[in-house]
Amino acid sequence: MRETPSRPITTVLPAVALAVALAGLLAGCGDDKPPVQRVPGGDVARGKQLLMQFQCGACHSIPGVEAARSTAGPPLDTFGRQSYVAGRLPNQPEPLVRWIVDPPGVKPGTLMPNLGVSPEDARHMAAYLYTLQ
What we know:
Helices cover 40% and strands 3% of the residues.
């Protein structure tokens, strides 16, 4: 068996220091999720119930919402991390509420119908959607 030549400590230390630094960086890259966007006047539990009531699952898959597994519309499983609503509105509570209340009014030609959702109900629905990270 051949002996491995030992390396001077001065050549090993930089490699060890680099490995420790990389491990520290990777530890900081965990699955940190952004904070959940708060919707003034929005109730998360009520929003989940309303998403079921308005049958949003007929077009979208929505985690936590019973029978919401359709693929006709985009999945909403990471909605809280998306930058835009409907590809054009900043993903902030007020634009989202406007979108839920009247999609064709916000984006003419959209396939998402106006379901007659009130602004109050839309705030609850938005509150739930922002929990989806």
